[in-house]
Amino acid sequence: MSRLGLIAVLASLTLAACTTTTPPPIATGPIAPPVSPTVPETPGAPVLGFNTLAGWSEEDHLAALDAFRAGCGVARDQEMARVCRLARTDGPRDDWGARLFLEANFRPQAVGDQGLLTAYFAPKYDAQMSRSDEFSAPVRGVPSDLVMLDLGAFEPSFAGKKVTGRVKAGKFEPYPDRKAIEASPADKPLAWMRPEELFFLQIQGSGILVMPDGRRLRAAFAGGNGKPFVGIATAMRDRGLLADNNTSGDAIRTWLADNRGPKADEIMQLNPRYIFFKLSEDDGKEAVGSAGIPLPAGRAIAVDPSRHAMGGLYWLDAAAPKLAGAFPAYRRLAVALDVGGAIKGEVRADLYTGSGSSAGVEAGRVRHDLRMYRLVPIPKS
Question: Which region holds residue 83: left if phi is over 0, alpha if psi is between -120 and 50, else beta?
């Protein structure tokens, strides 16, 4: 049977026995698959000296090494794991020693050409347990009719490929988009939020909800409707709602709040992806990425797992900001510890800036031209 034929057959299967299946819960990132397999260094890419990395001498090398120590345990590459053990057991605890350690154990290697750096954060938003005119958007848990079908169970060549949908009238069909979901009643909502803040919580994938009595709950990614993410900044700019150089997250959020109701709903519904959550008591720690460890603020990146391995160490050289109010450059070491639905391609990274409003303002202004360099471990002789 052809692959297309197989998909057609699968689409018509009756999956009533599987309708309670839900996607595995993931702590952060719009789409977060398991830790990626080892990704080899780029064949034929030139080996560079550290002195060729713009900003290397000004780097906080100890902070960079500490971030590597925190995240390198997820690396599957044997040489990276060896350097990780060395850093954790005998690694230096001062900046000069950290620089010497990095230069002695790694070699920089250019990754592709020019790409794009963006950023994300773990937001903190007000919420309440009952609906009001202001808090009118329900935080929804994973619906009972949502099904994630693993195609690899039917055809080995489809291993790792999954589709999301539901069973209706005995047939498997795509799950509804944002507009249809929002038009349907919420079944036992977990909490209620301002619509524009729920929208941004869904983009970030996780965050903290602060209740009127001060209680804090962590909202974590629990599943999605399987639709592609579509950014709304370009559409808002093209419609004249925002200036060309002022499409930051802060500007978008302000416009949505000022136009709360049908006008804002229409714009948000241009993004068909919808994210479902689970709530738990907040433990006060940083958000956890798809690699399964807390994300060090300013030192963790989300990457395309088909191009980069979790636990990998990268030098970011990002400049030429596109948005008003942004920092002029981001030049630093960062560890690949997360993934995201919109993070696709070899020279593409999403920098985690931390939690709270200030981190959100910074993240919303990051849209920089990016050069990436993979730090490849020097094999032990």
Answer: alpha
Mean pLDDT of 101-122: 95
Look up residue 45 and give its two tokens.
Answer: 């890419």
Q: Which residue has the higher pLDDT, 157 or 295?
A: 295
Contacts of 75 (CB under 8 A, 6+ apart): 81, 84, 309, 310, 311, 312
Q: DSSP character for 220?
A: E
Q: Residue 378: what residue type?
A: I
Kindly list the strands in the beta sheet with 206-210, ordered across the sheet, starting from the edge strand earlier in the chain.
124-126, 206-210, 216-224, 275-281
CB count, 10 Å around CB of 95? 15
According to DSSP, the β-strands at 191-193 and 137-139 are antiparallel
Share of the chain above pLDDT 90, in %: 69
Single-letter amino acid, residue 164:
T
pLDDT tens per residue, range 227-240: 999 999 999 999 99
Ordered DSSP codes for 111-156: EEEEEEEEEEEE-EEE-BSS--SSS-EEE----TT-EEEEGGGT-G
Is the separation of the CB atoms in 14 and 167 below 8 Å? yes
Handedness of CA 155, 21, 18, 10 (dihedral sign): negative
Q: Are 276 and 140 spatial neighbours (Cβ–Cβ below 8 Å)?
A: yes
Please name the residues in contact with 48: beta carbons below 8 A apart, sequence gap of 6 or more.
107, 108, 109, 110, 373
* Residues with Cβ within 8 Å of residue 282, at least 6 apart in sequence: 208, 216, 217, 218
Instruction: Provide mean pLDDT across the span 143-164.
Output: 88
Q: What is the pLDDT of residues 295-343, one digit of tens each?
A: 999 999 999 999 999 999 999 999 999 988 899 999 999 999 998 877 9
Q: State which H helix or E strand residue 110 sits in.
A: strand 106-122
Query: What's this model's pTM, rounded to 2 decimal places?
Result: 0.71
